Amino acid sequence: MDEHPLLRFVDGPAGRRARLVGSGLDVWEVIEVLRDNDGDVAAAADYLELPLGLVQAAVTYYGAYPEEIDEWIEANRREREEAHAAWLAGQAALRR
User: Are the CB atoms for 45 and 55 separated by under 8 Å?
Assistant: First the structure.
């Protein structure tokens, strides 16, 4: 926490995650928005309605621990795809 004072760590069913102080957003979520905005920190801060400094803190943490954040991003992508496939299967079953 000394190196990343704007982050706190939270435990959940999927494990321990780095979260921005006062925002409820995990670092991986902010990095996803940054990627969607071509790395534009100001655009991501505007979209997330966060102070620029918090988004910059997420970038700094990602620079120090890219593997950790990339694992969270990949886990979320897999979960999203599985949920979408299940929804599509349910929709197909309704049409039978």
Answer: yes
